[in-house]
Amino acid sequence: MRVLVCDDEQLARDRLVRLVDGIEGVEVVAEAANGREAVLAAQRVHPDVVLMDIRMPDMDGLEAAEHLSRTEQPPALIFCTAYDEHALDAFRVRALDYLLKPVSRDDLDAALTRARKMTRVQASDDDSGEKSTLRRQHISARTHRGLELVPVNDIRYFLADQKYITVRHGGGEVLIDETLKDLETEFGDLFVRVHRNALVALSFIEGMEQAPAGHHQLRLRGLEDTLVVSRRHVAGLRKVMQRL
């Protein structure tokens, strides 16, 4: 069984690696110092299990678990943390187990035994848990380069086009398979609806103007192209812009 160990403290990682090395039939295939590194490493090494801390810089373990659960073959997740107040959130992102530090060898062995019995398909198909209500700090997209993580605060807009959503950000754009409605629910305080097919980041709005054709369009900081504002959203957008 292939294991990825993720903890921002080197000593904690070293201890988990030693514990895993002492368990027969299990090997550590990668280490990571935060959630972002764990998500990217998982795409390279395809672990069966991720041992994950929760409180980490850049991306915490709960958000990393959310991204990992969206991959084609999600690994089993076992949280190893010093804080027990995150247990409910951990199981909302379908964690297999939740171990408190210092993790004992017996507890880790028992958790890995449970993971060995659960296939990746069973883990990904388990809808019995409560849906996660955690808000992501990144959007994950599968591209020809693998999994890309786009910081939410770098996104200019979400634009729906049939089945997929175009995510326009500072470095270009990616496609994701989500719904505009779900994105609006999750990020409604950061983005505003300007059209039935578009959500725009409030922090990048420069102004709204009327085009020669008669419709309104929105200018965004750092972008040459504009977005069409539907007639039904003009008044509401004006009110939002007055508060910016």
UniProtKB/TrEMBL annotation:
UniProt keywords, alphabetically: Phosphoprotein, Two-component regulatory system
Keyword set includes Phosphoprotein: yes
Residue stretches making up the Response regulatory domain: 2-116
Source domain of life: Bacteria
Protein name: Alginate biosynthesis regulator
Lineage, top ranks: Bacteria, Pseudomonadati, Pseudomonadota, Gammaproteobacteria, Oceanospirillales
Species this protein is from: Isoalcanivorax pacificus W11-5
4-aspartylphosphate carried by residues: 53
One GO molecular-function entry: DNA binding
Domain named HTH LytTR-type: residues: 139-243
Keyword Kinase in record: no
